[in-house]
Structure formats: C-alpha cells, structure tokens
Write a structure and sequence with these properties.
By secondary structure, the chain is mainly alpha-helical. Helix content is 77%, strand content 3%. Strands 2-1-3 form a three-stranded mixed beta sheet. The longest helix has 34 residues.
Length: 288
C-alpha cells in the first residue's frame, strides 16, 4: 500500500518516440496552434462586428470557433512545453484537469453540431416558423446549454470515479492524459468504472449523432418532394455541416478504438525507456 500514496505524477512515455525529431514536431505543433488561434479569432471577430451575421447559424459557428480555441489551448501548449523542456512528467492534478477539459471540449463540439443540425432542420422543414422557433432567447439558451449540460454531466461521473482513484503506476502511453489510460494505472479494480465509462462514451456521442441523423432524415424527406432549385439550395446549406460532422465523428471513433485496445505490446518499449529515463535522472540527481 506504500505505492498508493507515492504516485502523485505521471510520465508521458509517448514523447520518448518523438525525441529524435522533437524540434520538428515542436515547430509543426506551434504553427498549427498559431493557425488555429488566428483563423478562429478572425472568424469570431468577423461575426461579432458584422451585424448582418447575427443570425442563429453564424452564432452557432462562432460558438464552434470558441470551442476550437478552448480545445486547442487545453492540448497544444502542454505538448509544446514537454517537447521544448524534455520533461515528460505531469502532476496528478494537471492530469485530471486535462482529462476533464478535453472531454468537455469533445462533448461540447457534438452538442453544438447537434444544435446546428436542428437549425438547418427548422430552416428547411419549417421556414415560416423559423424566427419563432429560433428566436434570440432560444438561441442563447441553446448555446448556454451546449456548454452547461456536458460540464455537469461529465463532472458528476468524473468526481465519483476517476478523481477518487489511487494509482500504483505512473507511465501513460500517450502525449496527453486519457481517462481510460489513467484508470488502467489504478491500484484497485476499476471494472465498474470501465463499464460506466463505456456507457458514457456510447451515450455522449451516440445521442447527438442520433439527433443529427434524425434532423437530416427529415430534411431528406422534405427535399424528395421539393423542386430542383430547392434541393440544390438545401444541399449547399447542409453540406458544410455534414462534412464537419463526419470528419469529427471519424476522428472521435479512431481515438476511442485506439484507447480501448491494449497497446502495451506496441508501447512496451516506450514504457521501458521511460523507466530507464527516470532511473537515469534519479542517479544523476543523487550524484554530488
């Protein structure tokens, strides 16, 4: 039980594989972060200053850009710090905070995309009632709820499960903290937590995707009986949103599949290198 209280920080072993080209990775991630900040900031500023863009769809796009700024800031600066300092250790508090913030980013992205699909559904299927159904008050409520609901939803699960765990190992085979990988390091059986976590993972993206598919099914039903001109207009309106949903869903699916499989065979060498690196640092620090 001595190890239970000993582990208060973790080593991100995936960075060891990046050491040979760490300056190149640092430059690439830095450019990526600057571009994300620049493009999203310009988009937010353009929507804010142009009164003609103060429509529900553009306000939702602005909210999507804000979430993009938030998500990239949660992930990329810490990666840049690790690559520049070659210090791959992260405190338990920082790790828990990053897990919560990254999960919040992911679910908020889905909720915003769901609200956007509903907006397209109302605009195409109920155009005469659009301003009533998408009034400024309802749009504001939708934006607020798209943040508050995921925040409270995951906070309840996170506080009752992962935040209460004690850990006996400190090697995470990722470049960032992951809830699934952190639970694998627990000193105790986390079978129940894993089941709850899988249910959470299925419900959180699954429910928004179902609602998005339902909205587009209704749009498709209306378009089948509409004129060619109306069909082309609906296609132009919905295509960017559909491409965004598909791109983001594929990325999330890839991450979930990668996290669900046991990567110890692939990551065994990096974990071993991480232990050797830690032992070398301890020996260096103990020498006069």
């Amino acid at each position: 039980m001595e190890n239970v209280s000993a582990v208060t920080s973790f080593i991100m072993t995936a960075y060891i594989e990046l050491e040979a080209y760490r300056y190149l990775y640092f430059l690439c991630f830095l450019i990526l972060y600057i571009l994300i900040l620049l493009f999203n900031s310009v988009l937010i500023l353009a929507i804010y200053t142009a009164k003609g863009l103060h429509e529900p769809m553009y306000l939702f796009i602005c909210n999507l850009a804000v979430n993009g700024l938030y998500g990239s800031t949660v992930l990329l600066p810490s990666m840049l710090g690790h690559l520049s300092s070659q210090n791959y250790e992260r405190s338990l508090t920082h790790c828990l905070l990053q897990i919560y913030c990254l999960f919040l980013y992911g679910i908020v992205e889905f909720t915003i995309l769901t609200v956007m699909s509903y907006d397209r559904y109302v605009a195409i299927c109920h155009p005469l009632h659009y301003h009533l159904l998408m009034s400024p008050r309802k749009v504001t409520a939708a934006i607020v709820l798209s943040w508050v609901v995921p925040c409270l939803y995951f906070a309840l699960y996170f506080i009752l499960t992962t935040a209460q765990l004690s850990f006996c190992d400190r090697y995470i085979e990722k470049v960032y903290c992951s809830n699934f990988h952190l639970q694998k390091l627990s000193c105790f059986d986390t079978s129940v937590d894993n089941i709850v976590g899988m249910a959470l993972i299925i419900v959180c993206p699954g429910l928004p995707i179902i609602l998005i598919l339902f909205s587009y099914a209704q749009i498709l039903r209306i378009c089948l009986f509409a004129s060619k001109e109306s069909q082309m207009k609906a296609l132009q309106t919905c295509t960017p949103h559909l491409v965004t949903v598909m791109n983001y869903s594929v990325g999330v699916l890839f991450e979930l599949v990668e996290s669900s499989f046991n990567m110890s065979v692939v990551g065994g060498s990096t974990e071993r290198e991480g232990r050797e690196l830690e032992e070398e640092e301890e020996l260096t620090g103990s020498q006069p």
